[in-house]
């Protein structure tokens, strides 16, 4: 995906795209409220205000919250009720969340406000838009959401900042929210009936993490195809198993997609051509080479499923109670994060498996019994030098952690709020571990590419044009074969080249990869 930080993202009554979320959250694109959103927000606010003086209780308007929903709140206490709700729920703990996650959380809550289903006043939505545009990012700890009744604590910290309380960061600098709002010329919002509740009942944090992960994995899986193909080339394998007619015998779209990428990378390879005529006597390559399209393709299809889930969620108006299209204020359970939690867990599973296969290909390069005549550990002088021996250890350590992170968070539940909230999704936790998984996958694939480049060069049988372009990009940052040197900087450079998309861009100067 290409992102233009200067391009406005319009917040209207229709859904945002995954691209919109990433543009605002990661790249700081400014947001703009569509006039139609103002109309929808004002209409739903009129519903709430009409109920404020009703003698019957209305949850979030004239009652307490959660297990305290039976307590009537007098009109003169309702501003305090909303303020107290936000303050008490801003109870996160632990390491500070990345700014992009917090910004995504705020944006998605703003998007729900714009649907006109939450009952907030326009000034509340305007304040959130102003915070995003001013780069004011509330401090949110990693613990505090169970993924049910919304991402309560994270969203409460965002609401607290809009009230001019708590701590925030601006351009990386830690300061009080009151000082940040004052510097930006933003008036702290005073929350009225229903508004505090409307700001914390959503799946916005976990959906933000899902949108970011989908974007990253879409790039990483293509990079994994590139790495797998270069490993096939460096190990003098065969490309015949990637033929389109063989893939069509099992018509999973992701599998065909990955196989096509691998064929494009291997086209014109001297090493593949040499193997075809005078190569090794093995009849079939190992599974980690031969079955790469099947594994990477299944990962692609899983990402496609999660895109479907994310788009449905982006089109949702999640709040409790919610203002219906015909003007009723109704309680509901749409804040339960199960759909998003499952999707996040699915992606952690595929991240672990793609990384596991990548590590196995790297290991084949380093074993002189399996690498087709290359030096042990791809060392310049085996025995004196250790080559990439410990780079594979680093991969193995990451893969082992990714397997642990693949255990689903969404199968867990723990009751809260005096058993009123007796089943929760743990979707926020699923998002946290997925972010670590995606980062780990990028590091494992980077080490495979670093190793494959070295193996291809050591084999010296003629690189494919794509491999040549990628290796040239690597060699601008990492020297080639020679005596052992400090290896961590080489790995760090490769990781940056993968995470920035630079190696994929180098490959795309030669051929189309999708």
TrEMBL record:
One of its GO terms (biological process) is L-histidine catabolic process to glutamate and formate. InterPro entries: Aromatic_Lyase, Fumarase/histidase_N, HutH, L-Aspartase-like, Phe/His_NH3-lyase_AS. It catalyses: L-histidine = trans-urocanate + NH4(+). It holds the Pfam family Lyase_aromatic. Keywords: Histidine metabolism, Lyase. The keyword Lyase applies. Its main location: cytoplasm. One of its GO terms (cellular component) is cytoplasm. It is found in: Cytoplasm. GO terms for molecular function: histidine ammonia-lyase activity. Its EC number is 4.3.1.3. It comes from the Bacteria. Belongs to the PAL/histidase family. This is Histidine ammonia-lyase.
